[in-house]
Automatic annotation (TrEMBL), chains A, B:
GO terms for molecular function: DNA-binding transcription factor activity; transcription cis-regulatory region binding. InterPro entries: BetI_C (IPR039538), Homeodomain-like_sf (IPR009057), HTH-type_TetR-like_transc_reg (IPR050109), HTH_TetR (IPR001647), Tet_transcr_reg_TetR-rel_C_sf (IPR036271). This is TetR family transcriptional regulator. Gene3D superfamilies: Tetracycline Repressor, domain 2. It comes from the Archaea. The lineage of its organism: Archaea, Methanobacteriati, Methanobacteriota, Stenosarchaea group, Halobacteria. Pfam families: TetR_C_6 (PF13977), TetR_N (PF00440).
Length: 213, 213
């Protein structure tokens, strides 16, 4: 929860309504889906913005300033969703996490947004702000994966694997699948690798008695 | 081999010596390590070039033209290396492939080059030339992983897994580890995930009698 608190605190210094924030973030999402990271400009975001243009220019000096806030906003939403979903049965929760990252169906906007996400990630070595937010994002996923595996091991539903190492391995295969699928516009790879990951979880984590195959 | 042939055929239309090609490619590598993809320009590559500047301007119209040739050059080298290494013992060959992609030690230039590589990969959705070369690169790795696993299954050294599905899973974990480690400048993650992948290969692929643990 401390991360969410920190995100809220850093969400811009000039006050604005939640509704304005939502509208700005939605316009940013649309612009990124449409143009990708290098060709997204403040003007292309303004073009997607259905409120006063001046409002957006008032809040942000440049594109990277706005995209940093956008990453914070996504991180906050991701954390809220994950906190809501993390209390159930460990196996179901783990499958739910895989489902969130590699959904069975992915529409054009979702795929294009993932492409923009990897473009932004690739900029982390050149920007401390991006680097820190990507790091928080990855740490959040890593710690949730570790927690759910830990809970499953403690309850006896999972084999006694090393939760952190196993989480790290699953984390890499999720990121690798997302990156490959987004880069090459390959939804079939998402579906194929989603099955591999679920099968790995069944075979490697589930105790024999609860294994589905 | 047909891929290598195609790469050679498409390596520029204006004739130049191998030595010049090597020098141009080396300068491109240096510029990418130093500036990353967005800030690499033809001038920044020229600054790393120790031959006549005009030579470089003569061969290339813009940065993406040059980077496309650079990707072709890397692909050709990757294919030559892989062809040399793919004939030995399946287990050793597979470990060798992991070693090539997640080496135990990674110097600063190697890490920076991987960062630039993921920046270029992220541009694939915006450029047919990048898309096709990244696709050829991934298909090459995918087919070599599949072949070596197939050989291991046929010789009885590996369990009778589905070679293509298993290759796809290992491929994703390798790309995911490379991406995470490069994006967050995290060499420790490379070392950790390298161990996970090797352990996965031992546990999941090796027949009980030949397993190392």
């Amino acid at each position: 929860m401390y991360l969410l608190h920190r995100v809220r605190l850093s969400m811009g210094t000039r006050s604005r309504s939640d509704e304005t924030t939502e509208a700005i973030m939605h316009a940013t999402y649309r612009a990124l889906c449409e143009h990708g990271y290098p060709d997204t400009t403040i003007s292309s975001i303004v073009a997607e913005f259905d409120k006063s243009k001046g409002l957006l220019y008032y809040h942000y000096e440049d594109k990277d300033d706005l995209l940093t806030d956008f990453l914070r906003y996504l991180l906050e939403r991701f954390e809220t969703k994950i906190n809501e979903e993390m209390t159930g049965d460990p196996y179901e929760t783990l499958v739910g996490l895989v489902d969130r990252i590699l959904p069975e169906q992915l529409d054009d906007d979702q795929l294009r947004f993932r492409q923009a996400f990897f473009e932004i990630r690739s900029q982390a070595p050149h920007s401390t702000a991006y680097h820190d937010l990507i790091e928080q994002n990855d740490q959040l996923l890593q710690s949730e994966l570790t927690n759910v595996i830990e809970r499953g091991v403690e309850s006896g539903q999972f084999r006694s694997v090393d939760p952190e190492r196993t989480a790290d391995f699953i984390h890499s295969v999720l990121i690798g699948t997302m990156e490959r699928g987004a880069t090459l516009d390959d939804r079939e790879l998402y579906r194929r690798n989603r099955q591999h990951v679920l099968r790995y979880i069944d075979r490697h984590l589930l105790e024999e008695s609860s294994a589905t195959e």
